[in-house]
Design brief:
With about 425 residues, the protein is of the alpha/beta class. Helix content is about 50%, strand content about 10%. The chain contains 18 helices and 11 strands. The protein has a 7-stranded mixed sheet with strand order 2-1-11-10-9-8-7, sandwiched between helices. A two-stranded parallel ribbon has the order 3-6. α13 (about 305-310) links the parallel β9 and β10 (about 315-320). α8 (about 160-180) runs antiparallel to α9. The mean pLDDT is about 95.
Length: about 425
């Protein structure tokens, strides 16, 4: 089944995007459910499915579910259908012997080992068919890639960051203490983990390339060449000096190992490390995730930060609310800018899309909000919508009125005013 009809054009634009170039227009990734009321389909289609985390071998059922959801999703612009074998964040820890524990819609990894024993344990791990999780990842990835073929892409699983994997054994406190008392132990662990992590990456990606066209990971950005989303959640506990000593060298080695690399900068405590990352030529781009309690991705609050990243010559990956998309392309350099969003319906999609891709940039919805304010109202009702449409002398089919009503109220509640 073909899930996306304009693959070739979209892939050419993405090839240019990685090299910070534009062919005919900026890239933009967007989705919407083909049937109204199926908004949740989007979330599961791009990676929130926990089927494999609950049942390690249930790949056929996982793919059945994915293909059904993908068939109900419209993949617009530079969005691509991809299946993500989701075993939880940092499944490489399982390759090193941790038993994953699924709980509260995520996977936890913990196998406490003393610092004096950790090197011996990591060295003892062999990447062969006797390694339960190494062989499982190869088998599941091959099964998925064979079935996907050229119809959709199979993503690299989430192998995790080096210190995040180590934390599954030592725990955060013991890692910090060992960094202070015996930094050479941490360095040895990092070397062992990184060597085997890159081996697993190569083996899985080789399998994917045999059957599928292109490369991606949980982030969902398509690339013709090899790339991965680098990360280190543990770095939020480190000062910039220790980040440079214990984290950055591994990130650079990973990035050098691939054609491209996007760094997943997660949370405000990771921001102090941004300057180090921006100086590294092997790191292609940044995805900034503000974290709970802060302004969301794509918000006007982050424009100065986005500009700083772009001024360093880095690509940007941003998940944005629908109403902010056009604003981002106007405020930022469209070269190297990749914005992803989702819409409630096809009608709302056309209302919000940027002009460069045939949309109205939210102008009509913004007019409705301003009209409401002038009327002294804080919510639009069916009657008020009818009055607004009469005021605008605009005829709208009944099937679109519910979508428009809901979207105007949604935007109004957010005090949207761009």
């Amino acid at each position: 089944m073909e899930y996306k009809g304009d693959n070739d054009e979209a892939k050419e634009r993405m090839k240019a995007w990685w090299d910070h170039e534009i062919i005919d227009r900026p890239v933009l990734s967007y989705y919407y459910p083909k049937k109204r009321g199926k908004l949740g389909v989007f979330l599961d289609t791009v990676g929130e499915d926990w089927t494999l985390a609950k049942n390690y071998e249930d790949i056929d059922n996982a793919l059945d579910g994915y293909e059904k959801r993908a068939g109900e999703t419209y993949f617009g612009g530079e969005s691509f259908p991809f299946y993500f074998p989701n075993y939880g964040p940092g499944i490489m820890a399982a390759v090193f012997g941790v038993i994953p524990r699924f709980q509260s819609s995520t996977v936890w990894f913990s196998l406490p080992i003393k610092a004096e024993d950790i090197v011996e344990h990591l060295e003892s791990i062999k990447l062969n068919q006797n390694n339960e999780w190494y062989s499982r990842l190869l088998r599941i990835t091959e099964t998925a890639a064979k079935r996907a073929g050229k119809n959709y892409l199979v993503s690299m699983t989430d192998i995790g960051g080096v210190l995040d994997i180590l934390s599954s054994f030592l725990g955060p406190t013991n890692i910090i203490l060992t960094m202070k008392r015996k930094p050479e132990v941490i360095d040895t662990c990092r070397t062992i983990i990184l060597e085997k992590l890159l081996r697993v990456y190569d083996d899985l990606q080789k399998t994917i390339e045999e059957y599928c066209d292109g490369c991606t990971c949980w982030l969902g950005v398509w690339g013709k060449k090899r790339w991965y989303a680098l990360q280190s959640d543990f770095c939020a506990m480190l000062n910039p000096k220790w980040f440079k000593k214990f984290v950055l060298p591994d990130l650079v080695e990973q990035a050098d190992h691939m054609d491209y690399a996007i760094y997943h900068l997660d949370g405000p405590n990771a921001l102090p490390h941004l300057d180090h990352l921006l100086k590294e030529p092997s790191i292609t781009g940044i995805q900034w995730v503000p974290g709970a309690g802060n302004a969301s991705m794509g918000s006007n609050d982050w424009i100065p930060l986005y500009k700083k990243i772009q001024e360093a010559g880095k690509n940007l990956v941003i998940d944005s609310a629908p109403e902010n998309v056009s604003h981002l392309y106007k405020k930022l350099d469209p070269k190297g800018l990749y914005v992803r969003t989702f819409y409630r319906s096809e009608y709302i999609t056309n209302q919000y899309l940027p002009n460069f891709i045939g949309g109205s940039e939210g102008d009509f919805i913004l007019e409705a909000i301003n009209w409401l304010k002038e009327q002294g109202k804080d919510k639009i009702t069916k009657e008020a919508l009818n009055n607004f449409l009469l005021f605008k002398k605009f005829e709208l089919e009944n099937k679109y009125r519910k979508d428009l009503l809901k979207e105007i109220n949604n935007a109004f509640s957010k005090n949207w005013h761009y």
